[in-house]
Amino acid sequence: MAINIRNEEQIELMRRAGEIVSKTFQLLESEIRPGISTEALNEMAEKFIKSSGAVPSFFGYRGFPSAICTSVNEQVIHGIPSLRKLRNGDIVSIDIGALLNGFHADAARTFAVGDISDEDKRLIEVTKQSFFEGIKFAKVNNHLSDVSSGIQQYAEANGFSVVRDYVGHGIGRNIHEDPAIPNYKTKSRGPKLLKGMVLAIEPMVNAGTHETSVLDDEWTVVTSDGKKSAHYENTVVITDGEPELLTI
């Protein structure tokens, strides 16, 4: 495993990419409503990212056909934008990456579409908070497993499950780099965290089973039991003190 350590100049480039990702979310959040298609959201995001001088990280990555991922309800991750229109009561997870000056930033959010159930609100909030519980441990000399355990413990204490089949990752010149970042405790403590590591930490939390499957499009990951899933991610820099979030 080769984990890259980024210098301040490189982190600044990623910070700029992260600002574009954050602003793209702000744009889309104002547009998410019943009746809008996920393809319309994709077109907005692509146009904004390109107008900001960046390139969508996901477009063409291993053949992915769109600028962003839009995963609705039981779709966990990697949903392909389409003419499907969002309906009142849906939840939609959006994953956005931007490449600027040779460096990537990556983040995900889950949004309510119109009026959603209290349980779906809780799923979204617990997923988000599980990220923040995990990054309490994202400090120099802790181990990666400390972050993973923090995420898992919070999500499961609230009655949800964390996805095992997909994990977070390092990020920098490539959208996916070492290390892999599970959202659950493993036997290994994982690498020690060092200043300059940049990590895409991304809890994927399910209302039911943690088990998943992939649709025939060979991209869209869904929950095996058809229950809903939420996703929350930021690009995180390990510093001498508290971690810095580049995509907030």
Fold topology:
Elements: H1 8-29, H2 38-51, E1 55-56, E2 69-72, E3 75-77, E4 91-100, E5 103-112, H3 118-135, H4 144-157, E6 161-162, E7 168-170, E8 177-181, E9 198-201, E10 204-206, E11 212-214, E12 221-223, E13 229-231, E14 234-237, E15 244-245
Antiparallel strand pairs: 1-4, 2-4, 3-12, 4-5, 6-10, 7-8, 7-9, 9-14, 10-13, 11-12, 14-15
Number of helices: 4
Which percent band covers the strand fraction? 15-25%
Largest sheet, in brief, is: 5 strands, antiparallel
- Which H/E pattern describes the elements? HHEEEEEHHEEEEEEEEEE
Output the strand order for the largest sheet. 8-7-9-14-15
CATH class descriptor: Alpha Beta
Low-confidence runs (pLDDT<50, min 5 residues)?
A: none
- The separation of the N and C termini measures 28 Å
Q: Outline, from the CA principal axes?
A: globular
Helix/strand structural class: alpha+beta
Number of DSSP-assigned strands? 15
CATH architecture: Alpha-Beta Complex
How many domains? Answer: 1
What gyration radius follows from the Cα positions, in whole Å?
Answer: 17 Å
> Percent of residues in helical segments?
25-40%
CATH topology: Creatine Amidinohydrolase
Average pLDDT: 98
CATH H-level superfamily: Creatinase/methionine aminopeptidase superfamily
